[in-house]
Amino acid sequence: MINLETPEYIKNLTSGINNLAKTVLRPISRKYDEEEHTYPKELDMFRGMQILGRPKKKKKEGEENKSGSEGKPKKGVNLSTVAIIEEMCWGDAGLLLSIPNAGLGNAAIAAVATDEQMERFGKMWAAMAITEPGAGSDSGSITTTAVLDGDEWVLNGEKIFVTCAERSDCVVVWATVDKKAGKAGIKSFVVEKGRPGFKLEHLEHKLGIRASDTGTFVLDNCRIPKDNILGSPEVKTGTEGFKGVMKTFDNTRPLVASMATGIARAAVDYTREKIEESGIKLDYSKNPNNVSSIEKEFYLMEAHLEAMRLLTWRAAWMADNELFNNTEASMSKAKAGRYATLITQKACELLGPIGYTRDELPEKWMRDSKIMDIFEGTGQIQHLIVARNVLEMSSKELK
Ligand SMILES: Cc1cc2nc3c(=O)[nH]c(=O)nc-3n(C[C@H](O)[C@H](O)[C@H](O)COP(=O)(O)OP(=O)(O)OC[C@H]3O[C@@H](n4cnc5c(N)ncnc54)[C@H](O)[C@@H]3O)c2cc1C
Q1: With contact defined as beta carbons under 8 Å apart, do 386 and 311 qualify?
Q2: How many of the other CB atoms lie within 10 Å of CB of 220?
């Protein structure tokens, strides 16, 4: 039987994190929205805390997969991470993205690095650079090149909209080692800050998540050691290699979905408080046709929020139990990304003037939520992935 109750260990974990979100993030939320590009030094307290889960230990050859061996689901790092992220983003999503050593590049490194690479890069703050001026949603069409020259790779190209651009210690850069091979030629490389030819060009001024720094890098004959490549340098025929890189998204999309859920929950909680202060008593036993329009709209916000969380937790739980979750990861991102924007907008609508003033946070949540439907693949791209999987069609057949 499916049990939809929150597990006890998650409840214990999230109550502590919620306290941090309330006492550390909320009080500085507006400050760093106003002071864009300033590093929130208050976040130094999170250094070394591994707040976003520990990289999974790789199984040794011949080692049995113990998960599910007794038919029991596994408690895992993905489910606890999405629960933690929701709490932190209830506090502030831009600040969550600014927590040291918790970049998307760190997830990519943890997923594929060798023990030796883990030793070198595991403690660094790693950003992730895929997007280029001519390649966003279609990440298979990137044009940044990597050419092996003796013991070094030489990288050339431009990467835009990189989160944690200034603050990170290194960047996981996607580049092609063989343009003719198409997607199969795409590999990821760790480029440490300070490497010759690696330059942060500028930072963006943004609508939301303004506490997070987003920037453009130019790679101009940038030289990195040969063993900074993540995974095998071999170009396999077909798209197997590229599928490997794309698998990172199956882990990171539920993380973005949980960010969206956290922001939306902040808006729902705030709206509930104001509705109750105005004297309306929320009564879930009433027939939906006998409630005021404000109550009805609010119950819908809550219902969508619940659906966002359940889809996200399912995708994360599947990852923990080593089940292929490509469809479910995209479903969670599509639903949560879209509905975070709708819920936060609805909150501003129901709240009237306090939903619009900069004295309060709802207008900020509305701005912060929009990115959740854009990065790590837009909502349209998530729908495309789900449709391809359901209809069993390839990316060539359904574009
Ligand atoms: C604040 C911020 C932070 C970011 N951080 C990072 C980061 O850390 N690393 C990184 O690599 N990138 C990052 N990005 C880039 C982000 O991932 C891309 O913006 C996103 O993937 C969309 O790509 P694009 O902007 O080129 O849009 P395009 O691909 O040009 O798409 C434009 C529109 O067309 C739609 N569309 C495109 N193709 C299709 C299709 N086949 N079917 C239907 N609709 C389609 C899209 O959904 C979108 O609505 C960030 C972006 C922002 C704004």
Answers
A1: no
A2: 13
Ligand 1 pocket, residue 259 CB under 6 Å: no
Report the atom number in ligand 1 closest to the C-alpha of 138: 29
Judge contact between 294 and 280, C-beta under 8 A. Answer: yes
Q: Which of 298, 274, 265, 293 is nearest to 352 (CA)?
A: 274
Contact 25, 154 (CB under 8 A): no
pLDDT score at 74: 63
- For residue 225, give the 3-state DSSP assignment: strand
Domains assigned to the chain: 8-59+67-110 (1.10.540.10), 125-237 (2.40.110.10), 244-391 (1.20.140.10)
Global model pTM greater than 0.85: yes
Nearest to 164, CA basis, from 221, 108, 96:
96
Q: How far apart, in Å, are the Cα atoms of 223 and each of 151, 322, 387?
A: 10, 36, 41
Q: Which residue reads 């359940």 in tokens? A: 310
What the block records as the tokens of 264 is: 């939306």
Out of 5-9, 39-43, 160-164, 336-340, pick the least confident: 5-9
Question: Is the CB of 205 inside a 6 Å radius of any atom of ligand 1?
Answer: no
- Overall size of the chain counted in residues: 399
- Cα 66 from chain centroid? 28
100: its two tokens: 């040291």
Q: With 60 as the cut, is the pLDDT of residue 291 above it? A: yes
